[in-house]
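On clarity, I found the account of how folds are encoded harder to follow than it need be. What matters is that the chain and its backbone geometry are given together, residue for residue. The format is easy to grasp once an entry is in front of the reader. For illustration, here is how one protein appears when written out as sequence plus structure tokens.
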Amino acid sequence: MTIGEILKANPNAFKILEQYGLACVGCHLKTMETLNDGAKAHGLSETETLELIDKINN
């Protein structure tokens, strides 16, 4: 999913994204990026990305 799709489905997910350094969620270009691509661009490991996904899903 793109960051924009995630935020549309769960507007409160921005709080979790910010905790992982993805504070640029307000940028219109970043909302078209997949969560995985955004996580990689911010230096998150695969394990951290999976933790982030779990937190958003919960």
Observations:
- The mean pLDDT is 86.
- The two ends are 16 Å apart (CA to CA).
